[in-house]
Amino acid sequence: MKVVMERRRIEMEKEAEEVVLGSAKRRSAYIKDNYGIDWDDYTNYHLTINTGKTSEEMAARLIEQAARHVDTGESGT
């Protein structure tokens, strides 16, 4: 919420929650309509990152590392 509040210059956390929920609903509908899959089904994703718990730089590094393993077929273990 903090990031949304800062980027949108929103002072009330409740308003930021409404922005996030509205965005999530639109994204979910788009994914369902265009790809026929459920936005909330974790099996549709190779990687998820909680960007509320990590920096943008760290998230970028994690994505880069995961992409390398996908490209090479390595399991990463």
Architecture blueprint of SSEs:
Layout: H1 2-8, H2 13-35, H3 56-72
Helix pairs in contact: 1-2
**Helix-strand pattern, N to C?**
HHH
Number of helices: 3
Oligomer: single chain
What is the domain tally?
2
The share of residues in helices is: 55-70%
The number of strands is: 0
Specify the overall morphology: flat
Approximately what portion of the residues adopt beta-strand conformation?
Answer: under 5%
Low-confidence stretches: none
Cα gyration radius (Å) = 16 Å
Q: Main beta sheet: strand number and arrangement?
A: none
Derived structural class: mainly alpha
Task: Compute the separation of the termini in Å.
Answer: 33 Å
Mean pLDDT reading: 85
Folded structure, characterized:
- The chain has 77 residues and is mostly helical.
- It folds into two domains: 1-43, no CATH class; 46-77.
- It contains three helices and no strands.
- It has helices at residues 2-8, 13-35, 56-72.
- The radius of gyration is 16 Å and the shape is flat.
- 0% of the residues are buried.
